[in-house]
Write a structure and sequence with these properties.
The protein is an alpha+beta fold. Helix content is about 40%, strand content about 30%. The protein has one domain: Trna Endonuclease, Chain: A, domain 1. The chain is globular and about 35 Å long.
Length: about 130
């Protein structure tokens, strides 16, 4: 194996670690608000966190990191088409919420979007 292939392999695993760190940050914020949270075992394009509490319907959350603020809902679909499609395919029942959370760094914080089977809309974050 060449040195460049080893470097690429390390960078990929580093990316996963940063992604899991953002999940842990979102998990801690939700737990601070009184939610019980379960993290997925595998890093996938589907749901990363499932959160629930007595006063709120369950939340199914996909978490991403971004270097810049997402300006429009159509930008989410263009930046993460596979993730949005996977979340749109999640079966739903009354009151359930499927959300896409983006952490845009210290300057911007969290952005939250509700994913519906036919569209996306920005919502107020529970953790903001």
């Amino acid at each position: 194996m060449t040195a460049s292939r080893r470097a690429r392999r390390r960078s990929r695993s580093g990316y996963r670690q940063r992604g899991r760190a953002i999940e842990a940050m979102a998990c801690a914020l939700l737990q601070g608000r009184g939610f019980t949270v379960v993290r997925s075992r595998r890093y996938t394009v589907g749901v990363h966190l499932v959160a629930w509490c007595d006063w709120s319907p369950p939340l199914f959350i996909h978490v991403r990191r971004s270097r810049k603020l997402v300006e429009t809902t159509t930008e989410i679909v263009s930046l993460w088409p596979g993730e949005v499609a996977a979340l749109q395919a999640v079966p739903r029942w009354d009151g359930m919420s499927v959300q896409f959370w983006i952490h845009a760094g210290r300057n911007y914080g969290w952005q939250c979007f509700e994913i519906f089977p036919k569209g996306v809309t920005e919502v107020e974050c529970l953790v903001a």
